[in-house]
Amino acid sequence: MLLQRISLWLSLGSLSLAGVIPRDAAQLESNSVLLERQDGACTNGPLTRQCWSSGFSISTDFDAKAPPAGKTVTYDLDISNTTINADGHGDKPVMLINGKYPGPVIRASWGDTLVINVHNSLQDNGTGIHWHGVRQLGSCQHDGVPGVTECPIAPGKTRQYVFKCTQFGTTWYHSHWSAQYGAGVVGTLIIDGPATANYDFDLGTLPITDWYYKPAFELNEQALHSLTGPPLPDNILVNGTHKNANGGGSYYKINVTKGKKYRIRLINTAVDSHFHVSFDGHPFTVITSDFVPIKPYVTDQLAINIGQRYDVVINANQTAGNYWFRVGYGTACSNNNILSSNIQLGAILHYSGAPDAEPTTSGVTLKTDCDDETTLTPFVPNTVPTSVVPSAGELDLNHNIDAAQNNLFTWTIDGTTQIVNWNQPTLKTILNAGNDFGNNSNVHEMTTSGSWYLWWVQTTTFIALPHPIHLHGHDFYIVGKGSGTWDGSTTGLTFNNPTRRDVATLPAGGYLLLAFPADNPGIWVMHCHIAWHASQGLSVQFLESRGSIGGAIGNVDGFNQGCTEWGNYWKPGNHPYEQTDSGI
Ligand SMILES: *[C@@H]1O[C@H](CO)[C@@H](O)[C@H](O)[C@H]1NC(C)=O
Ligand SMILES: *[C@@H]1O[C@H](CO)[C@@H](O)[C@H](O)[C@H]1NC(C)=O
Ligand SMILES: *[C@@H]1O[C@H](CO)[C@@H](O)[C@H](O)[C@H]1NC(C)=O
Ligand SMILES: *[C@@H]1O[C@H](CO)[C@@H](O)[C@H](O)[C@H]1NC(C)=O
Ligand SMILES: *[C@@H]1O[C@H](CO)[C@@H](O)[C@H](O)[C@H]1NC(C)=O
Ligand SMILES: *[C@@H]1O[C@H](CO)[C@@H](O)[C@H](O)[C@H]1NC(C)=O
Ligand SMILES: [Cu+2]
Predict the structure, then answer these.
(1) 390 lies in the same domain as 307
(2) pLDDT digits (tens, 9 = 90+) for 276-324
(3) Which of 108, 228, 299, 505 is the most exposed place for a label (fewest CB within 10 A)?
(4) 0.90 cut: is pTM over it?
(5) Which tens digit of pLDDT belongs to each residue from 107-120?
(6) CATH code of the domain containing 525
(7) Contact at 8 Å (CB) between 410 and 400?
(8) Candidates 199, 201, 206: which one to mutate for ligand 2, based on the most atoms within 8 Å of Cβ?
(9) How many domains does one find in the chain?
(10) Which ligand gives the minimal distance to the CA of 190?
């Protein structure tokens, strides 16, 4: 630590005379001007987490620039059909990545290029992996959405995904093929970079999911044809493990040493669950919302909807012992069979030296709503022009029940449910200069490169549910949200440094106003991240700067080969199963 301090002093040059060494969150904020000037002049360490490399720090706008030419980091993922007993309840049929749940932690640094070879070892399913929240600037063909940005990976085949890490922070990756991520095709991804608060150690990712005892594809069929809502999960898993309702299984242990500060990367990887979390006796500092660094704030609980991430720093400064990491349900919108048992949901924060025992601690009462956090201020401020308001693009959410198809329940946007064609992904049509995207593509075009667009997601169905809305290819700026119908005015909207992230919750029965600039040529889906709702068609596609896509994305050999391989597998007369849902 001494060394880091010295190098910071030296590198600050004459500024060091002022004796300013940003050490904690509050100082960091007040020193942001200084940080701009010292950009790159210091080394990242426990007391200098704002630093990164020459020309890059926590003050850098990662939408504007990323470190050039980092390392190339390669991973091999193999997806197979197997069983797992994650919570002691018994074996369950799943599809896993490299035989593990969750799959391997993929880790690279800001500016690196990730090369990930995904092999489909399934017999009777396609696949395709989406790197959630990754901007894919100029690499839309690697976004991993079957029927949109690629043909699915056929059984026995491999696809290579290549993308540059222009952002840093925490995310996850998952199959975007039908209901497959619910079957277990999920892992986490860390891109190392600077941070808005200091910590001693990085404990890595802590994915939290709901867990069903029945196979996901069976449940998906039930969800598609249920008039009373989807089936309930049976348990949760924290980092892949949990106790079950009968007391079998085991809690995940987060090990800490008294006197140290730890970064923990919380991720909701669920199918259909909104969580609230807390650490007994340990208020914590929140430093990101999704990939976006925020002005740090201290809280004692957090709401995490599906797909959302929060990086937090906890200070292990209590009496050495065992403390609950509590997980609670947003019961206003989700539920779980485990809630009727008296099993505590969560994991154990375990101090070294303490006995191996379950905690007896008490903590805060967790909230039960399904609302997003409201105090998320991006550390690097950006502004949305108010001139986007008059041209807001309305997306009306409704639902449809088709009695002729055994009460098939679908969600519609402007009257159309999305159903992709795995053999003819939208990107293929675009690259062939075609215009016919099919009747169920929900394509919205953004023609003016570089301009801001505002999208107005408006509930029009009487089914008043909150939906975690996720956008690919961008972080959106949350300009407004509310219950009821937006009146079109700017009253109550935020244009000056609004929260930006890649998942935001549409309030039950209400609206969401999302802005982003058309600065990433490609085809990007925006969908509800409740897996059943995505299967039921709750999604749209944004066709951005159509004429520039071919030039922006470069090599499409892998894309073309993938479509040839899929076409040889999935052809008339050769469907082991049919596509029964949206396909994503
Ligand atoms: C998984 O294995 C089962 C049993 O062998 C088989 O019936 C099923 O088709 C396989 N599923 C996939 C997706 O390969
Ligand atoms: C969760 O498990 C992964 C994989 O073993 C590990 O890298 C990570 O550190 C664990 N998370 C925490 C918070 O302990
Ligand atoms: C945490 O400590 C326990 C012993 O109390 C040990 O069994 C476990 O492997 C440790 N976990 C990690 C992730 O180091
Ligand atoms: C423990 O750490 C928290 C967060 O940094 C701080 O607010 C609190 O005062 C500390 N408590 C003690 C007993 O040092
Ligand atoms: C698409 O809609 C048009 C107009 O309603 C209809 O004529 C056509 O058959 C539809 N195409 C498909 C493939 O369903
Ligand atoms: C994928 O595999 C699952 C499990 O074997 C099966 O239920 C489903 O129908 C398959 N889907 C397709 C489209 O092949
Ligand atoms: Cu939804």
Answers:
(1) no
(2) 999 999 999 999 999 999 999 999 999 999 999 999 999 999 999 999 9
(3) 228
(4) yes
(5) 999 999 999 999 99
(6) 2.60.40.420
(7) yes
(8) 206
(9) 3
(10) 2
